[in-house]
Specification:
heterodimer; A: mainly alpha; two-stranded antiparallel sheet; globular; B: alpha/beta; Rossmann fold; six-stranded mixed sheet; 19 helices
């Protein structure tokens, strides 16, 4: 009986929330929603606004699944923004300038992302250049390549290319649903599948992982390939949704994605993090963005806020670790 | 506040003629879930070398950390030369003249020896420029006092582990020390280096420095200490004058019972099937190795540090590639390029450094046992959580792992229990050959007996065991057969029943004019 009362004391709840990252995020999301409903009843609690928030989670959500897998394995990818833009442009060029069928263009966009991811992975595992440097270099290289391929982007994409990113289902556009499917698959994979479970071991202690029979390099390569594929998908979906392949698409998306994953429980030193956590991190970030827009905070403040959230999230992570 | 005033009033008067350099009175320290120190009192006199012994987890490190200002006690008080002493942090302890040489390196590898010795308090010339030449000269003198001739400009990264240890000590000595704390200082030193360190410590003690010497090695304690305090489960179980006690008495104070390891009398039959055959294997630094292990046999690889024993194991396990020679499992030659391939051939390996290369410290016991057995607990590509749980629970039960549950992160386990977790991982695979590199390093005496029993049982079940150990009494207690390595070569073989420490050492000592001998001659 005594335990029961202890379990429901305020103190106990506060402690649980502080240490359980997903629970903390859910609590924060609820607090923000209630606050915004009271403060801005005219703008916040409406379906259109929710739909906007959810659609905003689509791109970051798709990317964060890949980023979470990499972070669990102890690495990360800074090139996803450029990969996304490059994939969108490739899809646009294929469908408009080359006149290929929309499905081929869509697959070409995804393939582009996959190839970039494989190149990243090969450089990191074969030449043992660290992930930070490799993907930072790739970020710069791809921005340049994109501008060479198509200096002004590809506007007014053909009608047949639109369904991928603009089909409505239950009041929300397809990118949201694609993100949900990827997140669910990622959740299952990371929590239950033998292959993906190995990332936790690699991130926790890669030397011990290798000596326990885990093929560390192969998994790292797969992780980057998957990240590239997801970035390619996100870029192609964005081009389809906007009917427009934009050269500067996805700039700063790596900041937002890594922040969401860290908020969701990932650690820069690897070995921890879950896909539901990552999803909640993304939702939280979108809600913050929505709040800033509704309260008419100037645009440049938004990236300042994202940067501060990243610092706070990493700070909490460090605090939690030193307490152990 | 009032409590502190009261503590000050109760400063005890020393009983003898000499006032203790440091006196610790009724110190208690509680960490979440564990009482690390329970009403510990202890004192060290000026000029005394006071040894501190106890099993892992007995509270030695916690006590040293409290003295060095890393932790603060929950209860109790300390005096330094009769004055109340309660350091706020490590800096305050250093200012009070307490220097601690840490077990694990606190050095900056890319920086020079001199910069390491004077880290944070470099001598400066007017204008704030660092006075490198003074720093180098003083460093050279300090090192010479320690009997080593090293260039102070050498980066620490280029030093051997034992040289680094000496730099750590030089760093501690570079400050005005009243009390010097050494935690397992000889664990990476050669015998001659250790001897030299003892001379230095004796010399310091003669000059009136008080020294606390934390060590596992009782032989050293008897060689150097004046008195010894034994800790067990956070309590002091005895203070003895060296010369009025015996190693056996200290061990029984450490573990609360007498322990002895009788050599194993069971032997695998001579016609038991051959599991491992290594023939003329070359895998630098292994120059030439041949050995055989039969089913049910425990073969120990003995030799000095650096003889290539670990590297030979790595070559068998596929994580180091052999240039020539043969490795056969049950008569079939194998060419593993990765640990996974060796595992598929029926080999398991518990590495030497379990924290670095064996365990996933932040992960649960269940996760640590499961890795390497993921296929076993899965249906197709999907992991079945019930199977994971069953495997982990079986392991905990079978190897008597002491833990509140299978979800406990292994970093919270004692060294012995960590080693059992590692063994459990391999046992679940039912290997034909299990390689165990230093099975009981950093493990307390009680857990040692458990680990020996586990290994012997495995042999009885027909597993071939290849054990690397630098602990000769362990080799003699555990092995059926002993293979001695020296400078990358398997130089000979002994039946454990006829072997003794002297014979093994004679075989293991390099005959050629080697690097190690040069080192020894210089020291």
């Amino acid at each position: 009986m005594k335990k029961q009362t202890e379990k429901w004391s305020i103190n106990y709840l506060a402690k649980r929330i502080a240490y359980d990252r997903p629970l903390l995020l859910v609590t924060l999301i609820l607090i923000i929603s209630i606050f915004m409903t009271i403060k801005h009843p005219e703008a916040f609690p409406h379906w259109d606004n929710f739909a906007a928030v959810l659609l905003d989670t689509a791109q970051a959500g798709i990317l964060t699944v890949g980023m979470m897998i990499l972070l669990v394995g102890g690495v990360f990818d800074l090139s996803i923004g450029s990969t996304l833009a490059f994939a969108g442009i490739v899809a646009g060029v294929v469908v408009k300038d080359a006149g290929a069928p929309p499905l081929i263009a869509f697959l070409a966009g995804m393939l582009t992302g996959l190839i970039v991811g494989v190149i990243n992975g090969l450089i990191i595992t074969r030449f043992r250049i660290n992930a930070l440097i490799t993907t930072l270099a790739m970020q710069g290289i791809l921005r340049g390549v994109t501008q060479i391929v198509s200096p002004a982007g590809v506007a007014n994409l053909p009608h047949g290319f639109k369904p991928f990113g603009q089909t409505m289902f239950l009041g929300l556009q397809s990118p949201f649903w694609i993100m949900i499917i990827i997140a669910l698959a990622g959740w299952f994979a990371m929590s239950r599948m033998r292959f993906f479970r190995q990332f936790y071991y690699i991130g926790s202690n890669s030397k011990a992982a290798a000596l326990s029979g885990i093929k560390v390099e192969r998994l790292t390569l797969v992780g980057f390939a998957l990240m590239g594929l997801l970035a390619g998908l996100a870029g192609t979906l964005l081009a389809s949704r906007l009917s427009n392949a934009v050269v500067l698409a996805g700039s700063g998306v790596e900041l937002r994605t890594i922040t969401a994953a860290i908020l969701g429980g990932a650690s820069l030193s690897g070995g921890v993090g879950t896909i539901p956590g990552a999803f909640l991190g993304v939702l939280f970030m979108s809600l913050i963005q929505n709040m800033l827009i509704i309260t008419r905070v100037p645009v440049f403040w938004q990236s300042i806020v994202v940067g501060i959230i990243l610092l706070v999230a990493i700070g909490i992570d460090q605090l939690g670790r030193s307490r152990r | 506040m009032s409590e502190r005033i009261e503590q000050i009033r109760h400063v005890p008067q020393p009983l003898g003629a000499v006032m203790p350099r440091l006196s610790v009175q009724h110190v208690t320290k509680i960490f979440p879930g564990v009482v690390a120190l329970d009403d510990v009192s202890f004192e060290v006199l000026p000029g005394e070398i006071h040894a501190m012994v106890g099993e892992n987890g007995a509270g030695k490190s916690t006590l040293m950390h409290i003295i060095a200002g890393v932790h603060s006690p929950d209860r109790g008080e300390m005096t330094l030369d009769g004055l109340p002493y309660l350091p706020e942090d490590e800096k305050a302890a250093q200012k009070a003249g307490i220097a601690m040489v840490f077990q694990e390196g606190s050095l900056f590898p890319p920086l020079s020896i001199a910069e390491n010795i004077f880290a944070g308090r470099q001598p400066v010339k007017p204008g704030g420029r660092i006075d490198f030449s003074t720093m180098r000269t003083q460093s050279r003198e300090l090192l010479r006092d320690l009997g080593v001739d090293l260039n102070p400009s050498t980066p620490v990264a280029d030093l051997s582990p034992s040289q680094r240890q000496l730099v750590e000590i030089a760093k501690a000595l570079s400050q005005k020390v009243r009390l010097l704390i050494l935690d397992e200082p000889t664990s990476s030193l050669t015998i001659s280096e250790a001897r030299h360190l003892f001379d230095v410590l004796r010399h310091l003690a003669e000059r009136g420095v008080a020294i606390i010497y934390v060590s596992h090695r009782l032989a050293e304690v008897f060689e150097i200490a004046h008195r010894v305090t034994v800790l067990k489960d956070g309590k002091v179980t005895g203070v003895r004058q060296i010369g009025m006690t015996t190693p056996d008495e200290l061990i029984s104070l450490e573990v609360g019972r007498e322990l002895s390891f009788d050599p194993d009398t069971a032997r695998a039959p001579a016609n038991a099937p051959l599991i491992l055959e290594v023939e003329n294997l070359v895998a630098p630094p292994v120059k030439h190795a041949s050995l055989k292990v039969r089913a049910g046999e425990i073969v120990c690889l003995a030799g000095l540090v650096g003889a290539g024993r670990t590297e030979l194991c790595e070559a068998i396990f596929g994580v180091r590639q052999r240039t020539t020679g043969k490795v056969c499992i049950e008569g079939v030659e194998i060419f593993p390029k990765h640990a996974m391939e060796a595992m598929q051939a029926g080999i398991g390996m518990v590495p030497e450094d379990r924290r670095e290369a064996g365990l996933f410290l932040a992960m649960s016991i269940a996760a640590n046992v499961t890795v390497g057995n993921l296929e076993k607990v899965s249906k197709g590509a999907v992991i079945i959580n019930k199977e994971v749980e069953r495997l982990a629970k079986d392991s905990v039960e079978r190897l008597k792992i002491v833990t509140p549950g299978i979800d406990r992160e292994v970093m919270f386990l004692s060294g012995g229990n960590q080693q059992k977790v590692l063994l459990a991982r391999w046992l679940a695979r039912k290997p034909k050959l299990l390689i165990v590199d230093e099975p009981t390093r950093g493990v307390d005496v009680g857990a040692k007996a458990d680990l020996y029993a586990i290994l012997r049982n495995l042999a009885k079940e027909g597993v071939a065991l290849l054990v690397v150990s630098s602990d000769l009494p362990e080799v003699l207690a555990l092995a059926h057969r002993i293979v001695v390595m020296s400078e990358g070569v398997t130089v000979g073989e002994l039946d454990a029943r006829q072997a003794d420490e002297i014979t093994i050492l004679q075989m293991a000592t390099p005959k050629s004019n080697s690097f190690e001998q040069n080192q020894a001659a210089r020291a």
